[in-house]
Amino acid sequence: MLKSSIPFKETNYFSNIIFDYLEVDPNLQKFFNRFPTLENFKFQLEEKQQHFSSEKREILVNRLKHQYQTVEASILTKNNIDLLADGKTFTVVTGHQLSLFTGPLYFWYKIISVINLSQKLSEEYPSYNFVPVYWMATEDHDFAEINHFRFEGKLIQWNRDSSGAVGHLPLDGLKEVAEVFSAHFNGNNNSKKLKELFEKSYIEHSNLTEATRYLVNELFGEHGLVIVDGDDKGLKKLFVPNLINEIETGFSEKYVNNTNRKLEEVSQEYKIQVNPREINLFYVRENYRDRIVQIENKFSAIDSDWSWTEKELKSEMEEYPERFSPNVILRPLYQEVILPNLCYIGGGGELAYWLQLKEMFESQQVPFPVLLLRNSALLITEKQSSKLQKLDIKLNELFLPQSEFKTLLAKKYSKINIDFSQQKNYLKSQFKTLYDLAEQTDKSFIGAVAAQEKKQLNGLDHLEKRLLKAQKRKLADKLDKAMDLKNQLFPNGSLQERVSNFSEFYQEYGHDFKNQLLENLDPLHQEFLIIEF
């Protein structure tokens, strides 16, 4: 296996705020706590140690043991759960939706990033313990985002009506999905294992939370991964003071809006990922999850008969904390309140909205975690690698937009020079002489000289484009092969990791697929990886 990398900035797929974060731009430093270096984790764990009580640890361990009653945890995972009771144990967390069969590849990159970072921290700080954690987004309600995945370009989709939190969804209809999925397999031993894994996950469990916990535990439990479901009354009870504070003061809207203004002052190019509401909480009951709003002195859940005075709402929070679900603004705070966490690992969009939250965290006296951009990778098979060499395509060229990529190759493959830069420079030098002449004789001619220069340069541009178009027709077979290969590696013009499912590679490589990712994904190597199998 070969591995190389290119800077994220050269991929054309990430935002300016992420580029500036990776470069530790001084203008961004007030929006995060500590940059992810091994040295900085020492200060992060010392800070978190002071703000996370033994009482919280005891509750966390008890609730995790309760959550794991329906799956067979590995010895390493059981040990990690027990270790969370120890004041010298900390977590490294990533979170993700309950995507069908893990969804796109980047789910794997997130999980492997937390596993590998935990290992690195254990080696660097042997007197402490570090536990990799996957936070299941069980309370999410956007079913359309999670009900499908792609296998070798084919859409595998679960169609059903959905309401409320997706984690509560029963698994009706997934037996039929399993049959559609397995019909595309090649029949080897690896594909048989995939079929068995899908069926055991989605046919033998009662809801999507249990299915996802089983699936992720089967895939990563041997590495000590601990799976956390925040939709838990005992854990939410720890968050009740913050829930009440949200109702009393609206702190999340106030501080996030303030941060958003400051981010826009730093750069107008920064896209604000999330905008807070007056109340950033959902109310959850069976088949129901919707926003809580305040109208005058009454609080209510949208499109329902549930309503409360402030006193009644606080009482409901204290007695039934499981009925209150933090939205995208408050979910990170909830996570950091209930976990002894040091670092959150996420994608570019996630880190961008975490950068909106530090001031809100400070208002609640909760340490803000280290933010680490998850590993990103392009996986290239040996056959595809061979084609790249035959077609004389460099790895960094693959990241160009389609039209630029095709033009670059047409010029590279052409036996004639399509680049008229030399002629244009010569023309400009000739016109410089005319400008000098006009300056010395009659300055009114300068406009006429400029117009003639523009006309002739436009003429060269037109000729260059016509020649390029003709060469593209002449080289169509070779260019089509190159474009077909690029489309395989960048399906639908997107990054492979945002479209393709792990099953494509598992069918070919089996367990070695995961082993190679574990070996090659270095979470602190902040560049885009190209891994050639």
Q: Can you tag this structure with a few keywords?
A:
533 residues; alpha/beta; 22 helices; 15 strands; globular
Shape by Cα distribution? globular
Class by SSE composition: alpha/beta
Q: What does the oligomeric state look like here?
A: single chain
Q: Which strand-content bin applies to the residues? A: 5-15%
Radius of gyration, in Å, reads: 28 Å
Number of strands: 15
**Number of DSSP helical runs:** 22
The biggest sheet amounts to: 5 strands, parallel
Uncertain spans: none
Average predicted confidence as pLDDT: 94
Task: Work out the helicity level.
Answer: 40-55%
Please state how the strands of the largest beta sheet are arranged side by side: 6-3-2-12-13
In whole angstroms, the N-to-C terminal distance is: 5 Å
TL;DR of this structure?
By secondary structure, the chain is α/β, with parallel strands linked by helices. It contains 22 helices and 15 strands.
